[in-house]
F-box domain-containing protein (Triticum urartu), 376 residues
Amino acid sequence: MADPLQRSLPDEISIWEILVRLPPKALLRCRAVCRAWRSATSARDFLLAHHGHQLTLPLLYGCTNLGVQGEVLDIIPFDHRPGLAAADQLQSVARLGLGLSYPCVEASCDGLLLLSLGRRDFFVCNPATRQYAPLQQIYAYVLLGMYPHSPTGEYRLLLYWDEDLIYPDLAPGTQDGSYVFTIGSGEPPRYTGYPDSGILMFSNSILFHGSLHWHIDKDASTSNMIMLFDTTSESFRQMRAPVVPSHSSLFEMDGMLGMSSFNHAATTIDIWMSQDYDSEAWALKYRVDLPVTDLTAQFGKFTETWNLVVTCWNGDVLMLIKFGEWLLQVDVDGKLVASFHRKLVRFTQFQLKQTLVPHTFFPTLAGYAVNTLPFI
């Protein structure tokens, strides 16, 4: 007579090889199986390991106007693994009803998102744990970047204030320049100087090698400077960049800093990679000619400048382009890889790696909510 099948797997396999690799929503459902699983998958060491196994995905978002109910924001990590259906590649991981003002994703860091309404009101949320809280102390500041401060383990925001440019009567006596705000500290933003940091508000930052990086336009035709903010010392410095047209952005790929730029008509994309970060040496890796005429005939009108993003996924260059109501994925040969009919979708230069790791600052914030409105 054959031995009966083993009814359960050892914890080393079921918990540390299978559950630890599940997406957050699937893992939360598995917690209902038994108390042992719930206890094991709630421990901090497990949650940190689980976060390490999650995919780092390019971040998109969609906005839908529901009339009197206001704008609804969909958080959409773009997952282009082979074999996934198109609908799954643009699947929302969270939906928030944020009222009547225009919502925007402003930053992403360790699974946390910073959102804004009308570029004045700021909110922090974790789409995986469905935690959300307003950041009332930074109303009307300009966000320059978000980062973990490694010496303290805190999450901080780099901000900019210009008394004449923003709201001259809102905070009389506030000095122009950059500020640092610690999420959950209860203290107002701390002045750090650098009055010229306003130039950074026109570029998106990326976190690389422990520093925030911005590519700066020096004049209308060329740009060859990158500004860095060291997130440990919280100080600024500069590094060289390749001379490119002004439409450019930074990204990370395979542990290297990358830069994409495109011409005024957005028909040609140049992709540069830093060959040696310390010596500030760059090399042109790809020049991509887009078949704009053919794609326009098939998918509709192409609007230049803000409807194209270059990022990376799993060591590959990923280019996403908006044509009319279509989102297109194009490879480095300029060939169409995939198309998605999604009218109201917007790009970011950010990436999202979901996390269930708890953050102690959330309950300390006024207006904190979990698993309730504005999540819908």
User: Anything to note?
Assistant: Helices lie at 11-18, 24-30, 35-40, 44-53, 86-89, 292-299.
